[in-house]
Amino acid sequence: MPKRKDIKSILIVGAGPIVIGQACEFDYSGTQACKALKNEGYKIILVNSNPATIMTDPDVADKTYIEPITPEILKKIIDKEKPDAILPTMGGQTALNVSLEVSDSGFLNEKNVELIGADEEAISKAEDRSKFRDAMNKIGLKTPKSFTSQTLEESLTKLNKIGLPVIIRPSFTLGGTGGGIADTLEEFKKIASNGIESSPTNEILVEESVAGWKEFEMEVVRDKADNCIIICSIENVDPMGVHTGDSITVAPALTLTDKEYQMMRVASINILREIGVDTGGSNVQFAINPENGDMVVIEMNPRVSRSSALASKATGFPIAKIAALLAVGYTLDELKNDITKTTPASFEPTIDYVVTKIPRFAFEKFPGSIPSLSSSMKSVGEAMAIGKNFKESIQKALRSLETGLNGFNTTSSTKDIKEIENHLKKTSPDRLLYIADALRVGISPEKIHKLTFYDPWFIEQIKEIIDIEAQLISKGMPSDKENVQWLKTQGFSDNRLAELTDNNEKNIRSLRENLAIKPVFKRVDTCAAEFSSETAYMYSTYGDTIFSDSLECEAKPSSKEKVIIIGGGPNRIGQGIEFDYCCVHASYALKESGIESIMINCNPETVSTDYDTSDRLYFEPLNFEDLIEIIKREKSSGNLLGIIVQFGGQTPLKLAKELEKNNIDIKILGTSQNAIDIAEDRDRFQKLVSKLNILQPENGLATSLNEAISIVDRIGYPVVIRPSYVLGGRAMEIVHSDEQLKKYMKEAVIVSGENPVLIDSYLKDAIEVDIDALCDGKDVFIAGILEHIEEAGVHSGDSACSIPPFTLDKKILNKLEKQVDLLAKDLNVIGLMNTQFAIKDDKIFILEVNPRASRTVPFIAKVLGKPLAKLATKIMLGNKIVSMDLEKKNIKHFAIKEAVFPFKRFPGVDTILGPEMRSTGEVMGIDKDFGMAFAKSQIAGGTKIPSKGSVFVSVKDSDKNKIIEPVSKLVEIGFDVFATDGTAEFFNNHNIKTKKINKVLQGSPHIVEMINEKKISLVFNTTETPQAIKDSKSIRRSALETETPYYTTVSGANAAVMAIKAINNNKITIRTIQSFGNLLS
């Protein structure tokens, strides 16, 4: 069936900001869809609020709207652009929900716009829990006993039919938001209430708990002609009860019998047919009772999902691209397999290796959170590894996480059997490592299975690894080729072998090299080597066994000029999609320069690990051992010009240090390692800024508590303390007292290791500024100056910020530019540089310099319409700024970057912002008016801006005079003001009519009750000391849970008031990012 000719333009709906449950896999799928459909000649219109994505680059779609993804905005875009169709299946749950809401309103029929990929009925049938259950019953498939409900009262009445424990699943939510497992009535009431609140349709499905059953997923693709293929089967290593996004998973499924697999395959295809997905990819989830083989269907996603990205990377089959093409009428047999270039897309992929995905968590970023996993997703990223067998694959995956693991490291602090057994009972992120510890202390595999419900086969595989470790500890490292080769086939890294045999990594590497033992690189080819693969998508292996006959290397390095780009590894807070964005642009720049691009990364969610982003892709852990093996292989042919480490965050920078330390002969392209070290090393940096006459907050370096106390005695409290050589403000804190300092110093040493702790005077109420610049060693181009909306003390990644600056005068801006110019030239920066300043009483203080890409690069690139990371790459290759058509532009509009936080996922955690980064993603609001731009950024981030109502104000004494102006403006708009004793008295004395309300400690009726009863529409709450923060935590938490907008800084309150005024006085207007670019002069 040829493509549809009746469609000329397609609106693709993106996923919005990176949040837990919906991460950068939707940038990967959206980018694939945009490129594929644009290549087919369709006009592509895109809406997405996330500026850190490749898909929102101005050249990916024809018309790009970086606007909030809401029904109102979608209708405005449809009115303006008049698309023929909407593709809602590439933007996760967000795109499905908003598209369905617009469709249900009758607007699409009225405008003659069609949903393609999945129609209204299919989406509703799959996402509406009761409709899905009925559909499964119709085709004879079991689902767990269940009921749907829209009120807590109804839920409690129906609960008797099933009994506890139960799993609660809200309808139309992502990543299990609002769901959970309830073992007690109290837990049920809490989770059910939360689930009803979280669901856009206020509906929950309550089903009998199948926790402990085995969980499987099938990735299925179907076309209009009813061709159905299974792309990949995925097995969850963790049993049911842990959200699949938080579970360790393997592909293909390893413990299914052929009969079970065939049953599941047939069921998956029947489900797609019944639901009505006939043009694209879907994910179907099953549970199997290990006792009797009973199979039940858990759910299906009628769209490209997180698992689709994993299945695509695991097999090489581009699910999103194919799904987009099927949506416009093609059939699978008409499309070519991009990997082999010869077989059709209708061939089911076959894989002859094992893929393991392990999630990465960030509980340490949320003090007070319990590191426990359930049916509500909590992971912030994931790593994937490929090996010829399970042991090789899982050990590679563990070291890909970058959490300090080099294999099955000991995690338990005790050898006490009872204590370890207690750990096994808990669904914690470290459960796999506790299984290893349990085996070490002699707990039997049978007992482990009983406590964890892990399949016995996986436990036996881990036991084999632990048995090998025990032999290495007792007998030492073997020195013969056969045994060393065998150890490598079992997935042991040189580093792990050194640790187990009390040796060092260098010696193990030398032994291996002397024995001529090295990995080979095999291709991910979709067909288990049945056909030759033209695509250089590779993984390393030492083979199945020492007798393996598959050790032929398929790398085939070219004879071209080439450059290696090191990616950022798994997403984490502080190092996310923004860095992947820069790596992708590096690849594009190399392509444009006629140089072969080689990407190394282990993150399956990203565009950088797409098979066609770079000329060559190595899906490998970002460890020293794995990196040098690739360098050696690529050096064997052609001219390896060097390696780019500037774009992937801290991960590549640490690897660059190791390359230098080990005298590896490879050129680091761009800024030298020495310049990076000057910026990171506090002593060297101090000398630099002193030489350039740049002010710095008073500071000191401490490696002990006594040193820290003497520094604080000199500079005074409050101080900002942080470890050196970390990203995302890891373990950064504002300290107000000796007691806090002692506690901090105890914990910081663990994070910082051998590196000292940095102590700075805290510049209270200062304005923070971020500046990104390009430098070629001679000329400097200031790309963007961002003024933070929150004052200094809030991590730059968590603060809202504006370009252009909205309060700074020309004189200050000129001084800032001059200082950046001096720093870039003195450090001899070649490429990108990010500098952070604080401005207090018209004095400029430097906070830090990062001679690398920062997380603001994609945002500034969107505002300027200039691909900064691509330009930086060309500078590293020798191009000069003077030849790049880079002129300072006058920006006549405002772009606001706002952070998005996962606090709802972590019950009981305080939402107050500080110097440690906690956001998972960002959105952008763009408009000619500052207030409207800020309003758009809030709406895009999920905040419902009130136009009227009541504001509650509770601020620290030093903020009282400053909060008068925004509160007075709210009164003018018509808001009522509520405050506790001191603030109420202060406002009434300043002629602001204020109603007094009790603090929680003063008893009912108090402020938290008012927030919970939705009698408050807006909260302004600023605090300072640890006690005050503790006392006001319940206010912030209640505001979060009731979705009441809250601001914890005066500057944030001011911006919020400007946004409310803008929304009240003007209609929201929309413009493409391309047209904003045309306004620059």
Structural overview:
With 1081 residues, the chain is α/β, with parallel strands linked by helices. Helices cover 37% and strands 19% of the residues. The chain has a 7-stranded antiparallel beta sheet, with helices on both faces. The chain has a 7-stranded antiparallel beta sheet with strand order 31-30-27-28-29-32-33, sandwiched between helices. Strand 34, helix 31 and strand 35 form a beta-alpha-beta unit. Helix 2 (71-81) packs across helix 3 (92-104) and helix 14 (431-440) packs across helix 16 (456-475). The longest helix has 20 residues, at 456-475. It is globular, with a radius of gyration of 28 Å.
Question: In brief, what are we looking at here?
Answer:
The chain is an alpha/beta fold. The protein has 36 helices and 38 strands. Helices cover 37% and strands 19% of the residues.
Assembly classification: single chain
Q: What's the N-to-C terminus distance?
A: 48 Å
> What does the overall shape look like?
globular
- Count the strands? 38
Rounded average pLDDT: 93
Structural category: alpha/beta
Largest sheet: 7 strands, antiparallel
Low-pLDDT windows of residues: none
Radius of gyration: 28 Å
